[in-house]
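Narrative summary of target 7.
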Amino acid sequence: MGWTAEQQNRLQRELNILNPYFPSFNYVNVGTNLCLEGWMKTNSNNNYKIRLYVPSDIPYSVPDAVIVHPDPATDYYGRNLTSLGASATMHLLSPRDFLPKICHYRPANWNSNVTFYKVLIKVRIWLEALDGHKRTGQAMDYYLTHQQEV
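Modeled conformation, tokenized:
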């Protein structure tokens, strides 16, 4: 994909912002998509590999965030998260590339000033909620609230 000079600058700024806080995240090509991938460790010492799909119109669209590892990512009952499809109570969107897609920003709440750092902070909170769900069986709604449209 051909990125404009403005987009290339934004992609570099995103990495500069992430580096101190999420140093394992780097750009990778997945098929024809530019993605940002890296590892997160939760407070329960669980390791998750996360992928953000860089939107072709960066910074104007919400990037999709998926769990790459563990594969499959499972819930309290051992079900593959992708089998749940889009689930409001589990804060999941329809899977992407057969991977569970995390709900992190409503498109109506997105603006071009939101950075990948902010997305990854929300993903990290989501992962902590997943760990809580896997310990207790409580739906993700128990740990997370739904965003209101602004």
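The mean pLDDT is 94.
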